[in-house]
Fold this sequence. Notes:
The complex is a heterodimer of chains A (121) and B (108).
Chain A: E1 3-7, E2 11-12, E3 18-25, E4 35-41, E5 48-54, E6 59-61, E7 69-74, E8 79-84, E9 93-100, E10 115-119
Parallel strand pairs in A: 2-10
Antiparallel strand pairs in A: 1-3, 3-8, 4-5, 4-9, 5-6, 7-8, 9-10
Chain B: E1 9-12, E2 18-23, E3 33-37, E4 44-47, E5 61-66, E6 69-74, E7 83-90, E8 97-99, E9 103-107
Parallel strand pairs in B: 1-9
Antiparallel strand pairs in B: 2-6, 3-4, 3-7, 5-6, 7-8, 7-9
Amino acid sequence: xxxxxxxxxxxxxxxxxxxxxxxxxxxSLSTSGVNVGWIRQPPGKALEWLALIYWxxxxxxSPSLRNRxxxxxxxxxNLVVLTMTDxxxxxxxxxYCAHSSGDPWIWFDPWGQGTLVTVSS
Amino acid sequence: xxxxxxxxxxxxxxxxxxxxxxSGDTLPKQYAYWYQQKPGQAPVVLIxxxxxxxxxxxxxxxxxxxxxxxxLTISGVQAEDEADYYCQSADSxxxxxxxxxxxxxxxx
Lengths: 121, 108
């Protein structure tokens, strides 16, 4: 059974760096074709894809947020970390990590429960 | 930039058929995927690769594509199907993931 869980701060101040960790089980990110993505959802709004890290350490970022995001993985610890710099109140959202294994086709199944991050002074 | 366009809302009576569309220029080249999200819950994939249904997803959920439009069809809608539905695809090169704006399904 594949499970993922996001963790990180619930509140960050504007301009601070946000670091989120996705801890997973039931799969290995060293397995060919396996990926982990980050997606966020502002309150009452739509899903927005942020980043994706591949089993071979290839990385993809949303073009609109590329300059602020960094995604890394620690295969031995079964975790993926997303860093977002220079946060703003518009970054307030529930942040999800999710598993994908259809490489080269990307879809997310399953998702973590999500973690709500509020950016406010 | 690439976009996927969904109607903001769809309403249907129980037992009827609901169709939710997703329009985008990349759909002739990239697959469409569909997710259901109920309040306070994470999204769950309903359809992958245009028409495939994961195990455990009821048969009343089906997907299709034609040209630049993908469609999620829910046959015999039930009250429990009231939720937000999102389509997802990729840009034409398959580099970036794109989500539609979501459709709220109301069961009357």
